[in-house]
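User: Structure tokens for both sequences below?

Assistant:
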Amino acid sequence: MAERLEDLNLPNAVVTRIIKESLPDGINIGKEARAAVAKAASIFILYVTSAANTVAKKGKRKTISGSDVIQAMEDIEFDQFIEPLQEALENFKKSQKEKKDATTKRKQQKKDDEEMEEAAGEDD
């Protein structure tokens, strides 16, 4: 757990980027409004995390999963976010699988190359 409430704040650069990407061109946001959005986002994250933790505990688990977060969103009546969240979760899983497959392929290629070098060295 964070020792101070301020430790739970999101990085300003991240909040600013998200705000800028969500606003139309030419619209600016004041420093006070940006701070308010950042605080609201932090509170929302704590709320969802707490609800997801409750879901995990009901399942007698200590680790919160993506499906726990989705169930929590339903429990706290944020149904409009469930479908986009499910899509984002699927995209994340797909991305992770692609990274893992690429790493496995690189390792196998390296192993194959080393075996070929070894075999070529024995021929000499």
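Moving on to the next sequence.
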Amino acid sequence: MVMDVLTRPAEEFGNDETLEHLWAARAMEHSDIYFNVLCSVDTRWLKLTPHDDLIYTHFRQDFPDLDVAYIKENEIKNNVNKAKWRAYCEKFKTIVEDYSFGTLMRADTNGDYSESNTILVPRVQFYAIEIARNREGLNNEVKKLFKCASKANMEERNHQTEIMA
């Protein structure tokens, strides 16, 4: 049901508060899952899409000097870079599913998803920056810095709670 609603043309909705809540729930679920994946694997080998190589190659061709460790929202969304990013994203219109879907991204690789460390970006921009962070070893610090709620950690916590009870 949620996916059906979210894939319909935006013109059908106007400013529908229900749709905004559905989008927010989906975006938060995506960010939670992604953050837990970062905590669980060696991110240098993590594949986010079947098109990672293409996304990364074009990203580093178009943005060779962008420091992906800490993304400043005003730098990627200023008039000059906004136009560059729009052109970049459009390259993937027919390649990446939901390429322009609003996606939450961490600004700083040393932080988790929080109000002060989260930027809303198009999905393919999220992929480009996160693939670069993964391949360049920047996301491997997450598992050292955070205790993520992986299934194994959750099961261990539940087991310890049962023992204490």
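User: Anything stand out in the second?

Assistant: The helical segments are 2-6, 17-40, 52-62, 73-76, 79-90, 123-135, 142-145, 151-164.
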